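Feature request, filed as a ticket because there's no other form

It would be nice if the structure record came with a short human-readable summary line next to the tokens. Right now we just get the raw output. Example of a typical job, pasted below so the devs can see what we mean:
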Amino acid sequence: MSSKAIAEIMKQYNPVQERRVETEKLVSKWEATGLLEGIEGENKVHNMAQLLENQARQLIDESLV
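Raw output as currently delivered:
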């Protein structure tokens, strides 16, 4: 595969955009709980949604041990 072909494939890859799409789903999920209310700024809301998701997963993992 040529470097031009690789560059063309990677041009379409945007990890920031992909991550944003993932956290949008988490925001939707966690907004329903009210735990994101009062947080100022979109980035902070997305970060908190990710934090809540991580904590929930950790609790589930620990409960299975």
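Something like this underneath would help us a lot:
The two ends are 46 Å apart (CA to CA).
The chain has a mean pLDDT of 90.
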